[in-house]
């Protein structure tokens, strides 16, 4: 399964990214070493949307805190950048895709990233990953 992450990016030109304690949703907790991940710089923190594709070089679950019943699974990741995005794809381009059951790749991304604005790691379909490849 390919993955995507929306997160604050300090250095968009970095060759390697380290992401600590990232919230996971929609299968994101299954991310593992050697998985492909598409990196979106969060617009909530001044980013521009899709900036890179990479390969996970390390992944590990963050232990849950004892005594708290409901906790969103979190992961620590290190990702080696393998390509930079050549075309823009962010919130403004995806916003109009809101018919949640239309089966479009843009709608999947809008639903998983922007329906709930928090930063997160999400699992995406192979078809949506192929769609994202066109931006590189």
Structure, described:
The chain is of the alpha/beta class. Helix content is about 15%, strand content about 35%. It has one domain. The chain has three helices and six strands; from the N terminus they run E-E-E-E-E-H-H-E-H. It has a six-stranded mixed barrel with strand order 1-3-4-5-2-6. A hairpin with a 7-residue loop joins strand 3 (about 35-40) and strand 4. The longest helix has 10 residues, at about 105-115. The mean pLDDT is about 95.
**Which term fits the overall shape?**
globular
How many runs of DSSP E, i.e. beta strands? 6
Q: Which regions contain 5 or more consecutive residues with pLDDT less than 50?
A: none
Oligomer class: single chain
Average pLDDT: 95
Strand content: 35-45%
- Helix/strand class: alpha/beta
The tally of helices reads 3
The largest beta-sheet arranges its strands as: 1-3-4-5-2-6
Main β sheet profile: 6 strands, mixed, barrel
CA-CA gap between termini: 19 Å
Our count of domains comes out at 1
The H-and-E topology, N to C, reads as: EEEEEHHEH
Give helix % range: 10-25%
Rounded to an integer in angstroms, the radius of gyration calculated over CA atoms is 14 Å
List the SSEs and their pairings:
Layout: E1 3-7, E2 16-25, E3 36-41, E4 49-61, E5 74-84, H1 91-94, H2 105-114, E6 120-123, H3 126-133
Parallel strand pairs: 1-3, 2-6
Antiparallel strand pairs: 1-6, 2-5, 3-4, 4-5
Give the structure's gist in a few sentences.
The protein has three helices and six strands; from the N terminus they run βββββααβα. By secondary structure, it is an alpha/beta fold.
